[in-house]
Amino acid sequence: xxxxxxxxxxxxxxxxxxxxxxxxxxxxxxxxxxxxxxxxxxxxxxxxxxxxxxxxxxxxxxxxxxxxxxxxxxxxxxxxxxxxxxxxxxxxxxxxxxxxxxxxxxxxxxxxxxxxxxxxxxxxxxxxxxxxxxxxxxxxxxxxxxxxxxxxxxxxxxxxxxxxxxxxxxxxxxxxxxxxxxxxxxxxxxxxxxxxxxxxxxxxxxxxxxxxxxxxxxxxxxxxxxxxxxxxxxxxxxxxxxxxxxxxxxxxxxxxxxxxxxxxxxxxx
Length: 269
Description:
10 helices, 46% helix, globular, disordered C terminus, alpha/beta, Rossmann fold, two-stranded antiparallel sheet
């Protein structure tokens, strides 16, 4: 199926920006959502330069009402062929081991998990009615086995992964394919803030190529790097005490943004 209308959240940087530019072409309409208006406008210009029609909205995916209204208006003009729920934030314990706390933990769930639902659910009636189209959710290898220094992020991405897997089984009989994207470390603004070992780190361009190829093939799961994913899955199969000890030894923290209101706060992609 030729993709003529694509919605991408977290489009102002990283994987979202790269996919937006990759899909931009004459005859393609892109709906781009991000929180940073300046960077989002830059991505929109780059996509228009490649011939795409672009509608860009500076919205927080945690605001389901505002996002839903924008998505329904976009869908009414150009029925969506592909939606990629990519927006996300990361946080964790502080450099001194301080807990991330309820505010940060729940904020990650609102943006990462509920934000994915806010992105996809308003578009599902149209996709099902047309009996075609694609849905993609961006989870994380952190959703394969909880990381002790980032419990809120791990929980949110485990939820995203489970949500995507469930949607895939549900929507396949309706002609809608679902891809669950499970990335490890790739070069991005979010990864730059991760202070610790980054095994099997890949470039942003490589990550974009892997995801784009997987989406073009309508793969059910797009997992990279596989060795990191397998390692985390292996710790989940071990006795809990052993798996916990291995992961606890991989100490890390997530550097706050300069404008952060909390010592370990993250930012949306």
